[in-house]
Amino acid sequence: MASQTRSTIVNRDAILGVVFALLAAVGFSAKAILVKLAYLDSVDAVTLLALRMAFSAPFFVGVAVWAKRQHAEPLNTHDRLLVLGLGLVGYYLASYLDFLGLQYISAGLERLILFLYPTMTVILAAWVFKRRITASIVAAMLLSYAGIALVFLHDVGVTEGGVVLGAALVFASTLSYAIYLVGAGHAIARIGALRFTAYASQVASAACVLQFVLMRPLGALDLPLRVYELSIAMAIFSTVLPVFLLSFAIRRIGSGSASLIGTAGPVSTIYMAYVFLGERISLLQIAGSALVLAGVLVVSLSSRRET
User: Fold this and answer.
1) Sign of CA dihedral 221, 225, 230, 236
2) pLDDT tens digits, residue range 124-149?
3) Of 99, 97, 80, 101, nearest to 89 (Cα)?
4) Cα 304 off chain centre by
5) Rounded to an integer, what distance in angstroms lies between the CA atom of residue 289 and that of residue 182?
6) Would you list the domain boundaries of the chain?
7) Angle of helix 163-191 relative to helix 117-129, nearest 10 degrees?
8) What is the DSSP string of 95-132?
9) Among 77, 81, 26, 66, residue whose Cα is nearest residue 237
């Protein structure tokens, strides 16, 4: 009887973990859709990013206060510098470049380029930690970048100008996030995942708001109510909730399974872009997406086996 009860609890946790991971993937992917919808009201990237982070900040402050109570040991100077540097690179810079890129490219292409971060992380880790990259990993990365090339060709054919610039900005955003991931392992081990995420997010929020104050007049906040509604939705459903849902999923099914379920993200973005933005779906785009997902899956699985 007791074993059946334990088995039921394990199965329920596994199901909840899968559901949480799927919701997190869809939530993160919906960000591009919300940004593109907000851009229809002529808001600029600096203002929109500041609104997103300003509405997100109170949640992360609350988490930071709670996490501090769970970890009585204060941060030393080294830890603070880690949080500051990684928060600026991984959250602020990556987000800003991504928002800029979305002004020029489709939501589907943006999500696929962002999804290349495991390949960039492997390359950076190999360079920093002197690790060897196997032939299978190289082949998988070539597969992923060939897929991006196909989707890029699709966007060039249906978008008026700026695709190269937009793709370059989002690629730089992905590289920033990969740099953050390579450095975050050490910081998370020292500080704790929840506390580190909350602190780094506060750093990014402060940077985004400061950037707005320095670059835009207060009159730039005179925006349609729809922009504020989209910004609040972005803060809650594409920033705060996915972070915690992913954390809950990892706790129940492990980081490996959660990351594999995360491959649903680019697919959901392409579908949502079709429904909400009217972006066309072509066979070229489907083929390119399949190549990217296949390559990233191989890289992720191989990296996990090595770990």
Assistant:
1) positive
2) 888 887 777 888 888 888 888 888 88
3) 97
4) 20
5) 25
6) 2-306
7) 60
8) HHHHHHHTTTS-HHHHHHHHTTHHHHHHHHHHHHHTPP
9) 26
3-state helix, strand, coil in the chain (%, to 5): 85, 0, 15
Torsion of CA 163, 166, 172, 176, to 10 degrees: -140
Tokens 């849902």, residue located: 245
Query: Phi/psi of residue 177, each to 5°?
Result: -70, -35
DSSP 134: P
Single-letter code of the amino acid located at 3: S
pLDDT in tens, 43-88: 999 999 999 999 999 999 998 888 777 766 778 888 899 899 999 9
Q: d(Cα 196, Cα 180) in Å, to the nearest integer?
A: 12
Please report how the helices 193-215 and 77-86 are oriented relative to each other, as an axis angle in degrees rounded to 10.
Answer: 60
pTM for this prediction:
0.86
CA distance 47 to 42: 11
